[in-house]
């Protein structure tokens, strides 16, 4: 039986169209299946705001035990949490995310001790931690607290004009205290002038920018502490003298550090590039852009750090210590050696700009053993105490650098990485002249160009 209509043009076009539709449907079904099976996304933001931080990825992928993350909210509100929590869920089979409606399952909510919606509970091997909010920083901090055994104490020295942990003004350390405690450390203060002895409860001692000289007994206590296996972070400013205040040279402490292989130079590093001005920083804030291979900084290659009022260091190993550079400034830096500003203002020194080391880390070989392992003291020296103050801690990689230093000092190298990002202020700051230029271009130049082109087109067609 012949069917000539099959050979008609309409039939061929219909067959082509049907085939095309089937192929498109097949592709859509396949893509939908793969999208549901493999949850992948691409973050095109400049600071990867919608991607999990390296520290989060490192911690979750390194899980040795199963962890359950339970999110409690109304069913209709689950979606607002899925965007973030599903990223955690996709990182490791060890982490399981469950969504629980406390109104539909009140008994389960009571079992977890949940009394409000939006609660996030992490549990593992009988331990439990609560994240304070639905943010990567809080969830990762809770996960770290859940995994770490015991609590270590970071002790800050007082009595010689050091920065205060309770001060919420710009020069204070209240933001640093909050950051440290979020990462499952305790903070405390120790006045070595009253009793020159480091308490046993201190896991790390932080010398936080003394303004006056430490007496010899205090210096001896710090020296003994490190040389017997203790861990210390020295934040020592350049010995500036101004009309309002002056910073002592602390020669006794500087001599101890020199014996360990870190020499403190009596200078002030200035930035000549002008880049700091884009962030509201002056030339007295040096930018750290060059990092070495030490565990503290090896993950910070693409991050800038700010060091306000910083001195340069020289690092050289000794027979008892191993010392490495950590951070150096950009090549657009210059060192001012006249630090007596009591009679006037500082002028930009002459000379060829270069890079200067501003932070170093080292280990002290004690010669002792514990449980078959060599006991070593660890120390980090930074030429600025202002880089972790309230006004500077939020810049670039300062938070990461500070916590990486503490994690390395406490032998928590597995937690060294880039921390979860806070929302970035992306506002454009325009000067008065730039605003005039934008106004002139938008209101006059562009309209005049359009009018001129219109006249040209009209004239040619005329």
Summarize the entry for a quick read.
This protein is of the alpha/beta class.
Task: Give a structural overview.
This protein is an alpha/beta fold. The protein has two domains: 54-146, Glutaredoxin (3-Layer(aba) Sandwich), CATH 3.40.30.10; 152-415, Rossmann fold, CATH 3.40.50. The protein is 30% helix and 23% strand. It has ten helices and 17 strands. It has helices at 9-37, 54-61, 79-89, 106-112, 136-147, 174-182, 216-227, 251-260, 398-409, 432-461; strands spanning 67-72, 95-100, 119-124, 127-131, 152-158, 185-191, 202-208, 231-235, 262-264, 268-271, 285-291, 305-308, 313-315, 321-329, 333-336, 357-370, 373-382. It has a nine-stranded mixed β-sheet, with helices on both faces. Helix 2 runs parallel beside helix 5.
Kindly provide the radius of gyration, computed on alpha-carbon positions and rounded to a whole number of angstroms. Answer: 30 Å
Which fold name fills CATH's third level, the topology of the largest domain?
Rossmann fold
SS content category: alpha/beta
Helix content: 25-40%
Q: Topology as H/E string?
A: HHEHEHEEHEHEEHEHEEEEEEEEEHH
Number of strands: 17
- Kindly estimate the percentage of residues that lie in beta strands according to DSSP: 15-25%
CATH class of the largest domain: Alpha Beta
Give the number of domains: 2
Coarse shape: globular
Count the helices. How many? Answer: 10
* Biggest sheet details: 9 strands, mixed
Q: Any low-confidence stretches, pLDDT <50, length ≥5?
A: none
Q: How confident overall, as mean pLDDT?
A: 85
Strand order of the largest sheet: 6-5-7-8-17-16-14-11-12
Distance between the termini: 68 Å
CATH architecture grouping of the largest domain: 3-Layer(aba) Sandwich
């Amino acid at each position: 039986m012949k069917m000539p209509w099959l050979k008609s043009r309409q039939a061929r076009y219909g067959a082509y169209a049907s085939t095309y539709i089937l192929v498109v449907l097949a592709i859509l079904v396949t893509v939908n299946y793969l999208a549901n099976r493999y949850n992948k996304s691409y973050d095109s933001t400049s600071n990867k705001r919608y991607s999990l931080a390296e520290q989060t990825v490192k911690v979750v992928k390194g899980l040795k035990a199963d962890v359950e993350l339970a999110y409690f909210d109304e069913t209709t509100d689950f979606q607002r949490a899925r965007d973030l929590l599903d990223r955690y869920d996709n990182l490791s089979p060890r982490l399981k995310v469950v969504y629980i409606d406390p109104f539909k399952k009140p008994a389960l909510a009571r079992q977890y001790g949940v009394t409000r919606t939006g609660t996030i509970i992490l549990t593992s091997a009988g331990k439990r931690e609560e994240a304070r909010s639905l943010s990567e920083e809080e969830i990762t901090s809770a996960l770290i607290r859940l995994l770490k055994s015991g609590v270590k104490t970071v002790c800050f020295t007082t009595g010689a004009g050091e920065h205060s942990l309770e001060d919420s003004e710009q020069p204070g350390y209240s933001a640093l205290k909050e950051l440290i405690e979020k990462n499952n450390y305790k903070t405390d203060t120790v006045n070595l002038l009253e009793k020159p002895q480091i308490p046993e409860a201190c896991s790390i001692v932080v010398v936080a920018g003394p303004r006056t000289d430490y007496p010899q007994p205090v210096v001896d206590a710090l020296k003994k502490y490190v040389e017997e296996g203790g861990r210390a972070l020295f934040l020592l400013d350049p010995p500036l003298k101004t009309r309002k205040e002056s910073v002592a040279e602390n020669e006794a402490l500087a001599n101890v550090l020199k014996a360990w292989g870190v020499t403190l130079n009596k200078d002030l590093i200035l930035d000549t590039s002008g880049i700091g001005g884009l962030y509201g920083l002056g030339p007295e804030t040096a930018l750290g852009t060059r990092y070495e291979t030490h565990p503290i900084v090896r993950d910070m290659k693409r991050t800038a750090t700010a060091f306000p009022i910083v001195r340069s260091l020289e690092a050289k190993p000794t027979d008892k210590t191993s010392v490495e550079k950590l951070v150096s400034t950009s090549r657009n830096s210059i060192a001012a050696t006249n630090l007596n500003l009591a009679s006037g203002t500082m002028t930009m020194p002459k000379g060829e700009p270069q890079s200067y080391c501003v932070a170093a880390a080292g280990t002290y070989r004690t010669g002792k053993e514990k449980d078959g392992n060599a006991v070593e003291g660890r120390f980090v020296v930074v030429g600025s105490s202002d880089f972790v103050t309230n006004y500077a801690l939020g810049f670039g990689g300062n938070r990461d650098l500070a916590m990486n230093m503490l994690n390395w000092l406490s032998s928590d190298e597995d937690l060294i990485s880039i921390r979860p990002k806070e929302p970035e202020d992306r506002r454009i700051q325009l000067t008065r002249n730039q605003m005039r230029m934008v106004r002139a271009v938008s209101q006059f130049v562009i309209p005049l160009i359009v009018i001129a082109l219109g006249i040209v087109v009209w004239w040619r067609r005329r």
